[in-house]
Give the backbone structure.
Amino acid sequence: MNNARTEILKAIGKGPGDRAAIAAQAQRLRADACRPDRVNGPADAVFIERLRSPGIAATAERVATMRDFPDAVRRYLAVHQLGPSLALQPHPQLRALDWSGIETRGPIGTDEPVAVGLALGGVAETGSLVFHSSAVSPTLFCFLPLHHIVAVRASQIWPWLEDYADAIAGCVQPRNVNLITGASGTTDIEGTLVRGAHGPGWLHVVLISDAQ
């Protein structure tokens, strides 16, 4: 019996000339798919809940506007007894904020204690942050710091991964796309947790409620 999946495979077999047919059938397959019951309620609320879940083990808070983000960073530094110094992702929206009392620098070091960034968005289904590499979003900011503090707008939280894919369809694609789900960690043979094995050991997400 024919279905969207078999029609996609047939179109692929015919060669690249049937790309439109493949795209159309892929859309049908997504529309008819039975998704697991993982997104109940507003996407931003589900996103924060997923971030705080034991499997992801990130921390998260919500602030009203982007202007409140530096204060959230100051609170995090104080709670974790970190010095007032950090690598700041070179995004104009971040550089325009008031970072008084905090030393900020553009280049990020290989042993960077703290870095602050701005994500393109997030996926509620998995609690993942989405980063597209660019001149204002260097990929190394996702991997080098021990503590990564990230702002993301509530209006840019997609319920499902497919919603993110639809949102960027037709856009110029970046060199790298990174979906970051929680902090980096691994366990040895005795079950001892080691943070920061292949990325930040601590992830703190600040959800910006305004839609600007």
In short: Residues 1-34 form one domain. The first helix runs from residue 4 to 13.
